[in-house]
Amino acid sequence: MIKVFLNNIKKNSSKTAERPQSLTSDAMARYSYALKFCKGKKVLDVGTGFGFGAKFIAENGGKEVLGIDYNSDVVSIALKTNAAKNLAFRNLNAFEIKNIKEKFDIVMAFEIIEHLPVDRVGEFLLLLYDRLEIGGKLLLSTPNGKKSKFFLGSLYNPYHVKEYTKNEISNLLSKYFTKVETKGYDIGNKKFIEKNREITNSLLHKIVYALGHFKFVREMLAFVPLKIKYLVTNENELPPLTFKDFIFTDKTDQTDGLFFSAEKRNNNSNINSFISIVIANYNGSQYLGKCLDSVLKSNHKRFEVLVCDDGSTDNSWSILKKYTQKDKRIVITKNNKNLGASTSRNRAVSKTKGEILIFLDNDTVVDNNWLSSHIDLFNKNLNIGAAQSLLLDMDKKDLVQHAGGVMVPQAGWSIPLYQWRKHSDIRNIGEKNIIAVSAALAVRKTVFDFIGGFDEKEAIHSEDLDLSWRIWLAGYKIVLAEKSLVYHLSKSVMGRSHMGSSYYKIYFHLAKNSFRSFIKNYNWKNIVKFLPINIAANLLRGFLVLIKRGDISALFGTISAIVWNVYYLPDTLRQRDLVQKNRFLTDEYIMNEVFDNRSLLEIYNRNFKQTKLLW
Fold first, then answer.
1. How far apart are CA 183 and CA 251, in angstroms?
2. In the predicted model, what is the mean pLDDT of the chain?
3. Among 27, 76, 26, 72, which Cα is nearest to 54's?
């Protein structure tokens, strides 16, 4: 019986608990103001409630309207009471928007964001962005955080998780949207304001106000007849309001509500197409000429090339000096000693002028049109933070070397996509989120600066995985620029010996970097869950390599990586603070988007069985 009673409370709470009938005019004011954006447009109304606002838009010029709400009972009522030919309703919550495949000219999200978990607000905004056509607008309203009311140390409204200020919302929206405009809105009926002030000053109202802080009290009131409520609240003495009694103003400091319009940048937006190509070189004299010659033949001519020589001991420097005389777009700099690719790239970036950075390995040859493909991608979608060129094998040019990858959440390893398959086999990658490798990686300069560039302590081998991870956390996509073709030389460990490579160094850096990235980038719950598995998996690999191959390098490298991470833990924790401060998306969202959620055994059998370490 108690369960039935509580269920009835839940069903009826939508009627009067959080949004009393007296606030219907407040809601209609927002829809009335939004109408000028919606005429002749395809509209999505998120959190549509009973659908009266969606119906208003549909009947007054909206081309096609879809209203969605998490409450199935409310949606059922909307279907019965607010039907229209060009209006549909669906039972979906805020995060199930991804199940809607169609796109819209206008997306409205009124009084939603303040109800969401703070760590999922970024995900919500990204979903709204994805549902918009290019050139479309997001219309969003929320209570003004500057006017928030508190009771007993928390927000007075028990349904609100956080109430945002104008600057907070503007900063969130500006990550993806352009032309973010803000209006404040409030009641403009003076008689209503004066009478409301008189009522709220009474002792009885103050008692009712205090009780209204508790969600259970509000939901119980759903069963109280209006006439009885009016005896206590005196709301019936307030002058009736219509949406015309609300004002929208540029002065937002003192208004109770905020209304935002934000535009998704269209294809004709002007992005500075000047590109900075960054090459970190260490003992690459045998590759540099072919690489630079191919870059200089690029069809897109507005670029510079910054090469940072990382303390080479071969004749790389003399080759580079000759190329600076050949083309003024080539700028060179030199480290006095070998510092690693991450440091070299960061140092080169500090001297760049372009709005797009492209990191390129010295053992690559690029296609003439490789730059244009990156410009087109970045111009198309503001939430693309980085894009990897399609890496094809230098010798067998029809074979894919790397088309991006996905990450193993338990071990921090990358699983390459389409590796050693024919180029023509690639299907439907589109704007799928990937791990990008830095052999040919384009990044928006603003994004690179925002996340702090490459982690210089993750010097080589998987520094690009860590960079990708932090770009995802900051709320940006990383995609494959499939039409940007770059040919990359495949080299064995012995073939890298002139660059100081060895099996020990590879195992050490792979394990060291993955442990450090886990601590920096995961939330604490997932650190506790996955870091022990990561350490165990790397140790197991070390023992198996020793037993199967008689090679101690993997085990020694992993143990060294553990010791290194213990020693540098204070620095890792400082870096973690910076990463988490910039976090825009949750681990759970990223796991669903980019991580490989198979078991370790499944991954081994499908992707690593050829190593014969287990069977």
1. 7
2. 89
3. 27
